[in-house]
């Protein structure tokens, strides 16, 4: 999958980490957008053994894009904005 | 008089506007950081596209809604980033969670629920793969993040949102590899006349279709989606055309959606009874024409009260607020009330035709293969659900207890409609006879220590 930056991408570059690795993002990106445009492919792994998940509804309803944000707990990546330096752990 | 409005979309904005006009200062609760709803969702700060670029033909509506939204925030007790996760109707108290951390309780005398809707889906083999989203999700990605779910997505489903999303992607430079519509042309044509009740919207829909053709987007009608192929992500869609010929369309993402489904969990927790709307093929909370629920002090408006679209949401939001004001013997605008009732009557006729022209393909859902996951939260197959039916589950809540379909983190939002179709077929009964999944608090997951 290739979530693709198409429009309105002239925003301040920031970075955060996912599983300890630095990931580039732009101010205003959600965690979901940043992780998928950076080519991470998925944001969590299904606990039922059917592979990676990368969200589905993008609007906070399906709960299929949860990640752990260090210091904040489990968050929906589609409704959480990237902040510089935050640490995300995929589960 | 404590009036609480839940939801900052078109219905909520217009409800709040009427309350403020009458001199009331409502508590206004919105789950997201900003209001605006979905069809007129605003990007986070830092994005620069103007209304015309963001909303196209809806730009004027979006501009008006956002202007009212911003004007009303300081005149209300505006509470963004706040999830209402439970209601205790006997005490008239809402349980809230702010910023994912701070627990709260909000008491109300009147409650206006404007909770919106989400996409209705048809589970397919491979629909849990990264790269598959709802049509609404594909739109949100583009509108509020400026990204496409892929560079060459296939869009599957039916309804105006299918064409609209396809055109938005084509204009943004991510031309869909194909647009696959499960509805045949004749069904659309048959109910086209009924859509004359809202001629501008009908013409807009036809315009979308024409523009897609002009841009060379491949549109196929009366198709059957078979499977989404891929390993770590989407690589192709398998589908069958009206002549029963099978096709494989390579793509890097899939957006899917068959109309909308009310996000009516809070109405359920408030004790509002639900009825099956056969035209909409949805369970909708009961209300009168003004939006009064049969539970004292509870009012419903917008798509959360039955799908009507953005225009109806604005009218119904204002109407519900006027009902709440009138019931509380506060000043309410009688002339406006009459005007709104007339407009809403016309819109209901339009909506009926629209729903009939773009039906949910319940037959496709009913005959999905045993191995297809109906429930993506807990990966439960249609076969497991059918086994539950065979083991004496005459309705969806029993089937949920047996199979766990609907018990996952989305609380049956996605699997509810297709699971009912599968179960009804397995039991040889009509879809309404298997009932609906009852709502349970919390309506969305809440950190455990918060439930206490």
TrEMBL record, chain A:
Q: Which Pfam families match?
A: Fer2_4
Domain 2Fe-2S ferredoxin-type, first and last residues per copy: 12-91
Q: Which InterPro entries match?
A: 2Fe-2S_ferredoxin-type
The name this protein goes by in its record? (2Fe-2S)-binding protein
Origin organism is Falsiroseomonas oleicola
TrEMBL record, chain B:
Q: Which UniProt keywords apply?
A: Oxidoreductase
Q: What is this protein called?
A: NAD(P)/FAD-dependent oxidoreductase
What are the FAD/NAD(P)-binding domain coordinates in residue numbering?
A: 1-314
Entry's CDD domains?
Answer: GlpA-like_Fer2_BFD-like (cd19946)
Superkingdom in the source lineage? Bacteria
- Keyword rRNA-binding among record annotations: no
Alphabetical list of Pfam families matching this protein: Pyr_redox_2, SO_alpha_A3
Q: Residue ranges of the SoxA A3 domain?
A: 380-450
């Amino acid at each position: 999958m290739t979530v693709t930056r198409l429009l309105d991408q002239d925003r301040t570059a920031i970075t955060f980490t996912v599983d300890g690795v630095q990931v580039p993002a732009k101010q205003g990106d959600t965690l979901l957008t940043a992780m998928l445009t950076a080519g991470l492919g998925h944001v969590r792994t299904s606990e039922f053994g059917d592979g990676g998940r990368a969200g589905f509804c993008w609007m906070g309803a399906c709960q299929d894009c949860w990640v752990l944000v260090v210091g904040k707990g489990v968050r929906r990546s589609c409704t959480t904005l990237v902040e510089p330096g935050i640490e995300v752990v995929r589960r | 008089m404590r009036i609480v409005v839940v939801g900052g979309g078109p219905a909520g904005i217009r409800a709040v506007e009427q309350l403020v006009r009458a001199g009331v200062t409502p508590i206004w609760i919105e789950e997201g950081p900003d209001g605006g709803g979905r069809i007129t969702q605003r990007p986070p700060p830092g994005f620069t596209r103007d209304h015309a670029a963001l909303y196209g033909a809806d730009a004027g509506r979006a501009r008006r809604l956002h202007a009212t939204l911003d004007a009303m925030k300081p005149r209300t007790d505006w509470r963004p980033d706040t999830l209402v996760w439970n209601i205790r109707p006997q005490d008239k108290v809402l349980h809230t969670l702010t910023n994912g951390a701070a627990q709260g309780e909000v008491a109300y005398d009147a409650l206006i629920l404007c909770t919106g809707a989400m996409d209705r889906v048809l589970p397919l083999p491979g629909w849990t793969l990264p790269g598959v989203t709802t049509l609404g999700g594909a739109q949100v990605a583009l509108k509020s993040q400026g990204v496409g779910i892929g560079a060459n997505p296939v869009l599957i489903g039916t309804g105006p949102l299918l064409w609209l999303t396809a055109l938005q992607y084509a204009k943004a430079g991510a031309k869909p590899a194909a647009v696959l519509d499960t509805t045949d042309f004749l069904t659309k044509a048959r109910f086209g006349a009924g859509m004359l009740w809202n001629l501008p919207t009908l013409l807009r829909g036809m315009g979308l279709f024409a523009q897609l053709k002009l841009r060379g987007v491949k549109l196929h009608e009366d198709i059957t989606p078979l499977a989404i192929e891929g390993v770590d992500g989407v690589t192709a869609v398998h589908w069958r055309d009206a002549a029963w010929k099978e096709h494989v369309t390579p793509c890097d993402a899939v957006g899917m959606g068959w109309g909308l489904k009310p996000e009516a969990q809070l109405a359920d927790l408030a004790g509002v009874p639900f009825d099956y709307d056969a035209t909409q093929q949805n369970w909708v909370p009961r209300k009168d024409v003004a939006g009064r629920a049969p539970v004292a002090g509870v009012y419903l408006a917008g798509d959360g009260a039955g799908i009507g679209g953005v225009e109806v949401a604005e009218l119904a939001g204002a109407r519900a607020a006027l009902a709440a004001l009138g019931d509380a013997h506060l000043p309410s605008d009688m002339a406006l009330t009459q005007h709104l009732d007339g407009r809403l009557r016309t819109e209901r006729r339009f909506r009926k035709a629209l729903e009939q022209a773009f039906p949910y393909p319940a037959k496709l859902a009913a005959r999905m293969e045993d191995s297809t996951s109906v429930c993506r939260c807990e990966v439960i197959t249609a076969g497991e659900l059918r086994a539950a039916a065979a083991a004496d589950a005459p309705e969806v809540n029993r089937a949920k207890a047996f199979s766990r379909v609907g018990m996952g983190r989305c609380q049956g939002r996605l699997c509810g409609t297709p699971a009912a179709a599968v179960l009804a077929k397995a039991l040889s009964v009509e879809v309404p006879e298997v009932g609906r999944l009852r709502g349970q608090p919390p309506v969305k997951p809440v950190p455990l220590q918060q439930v206490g």
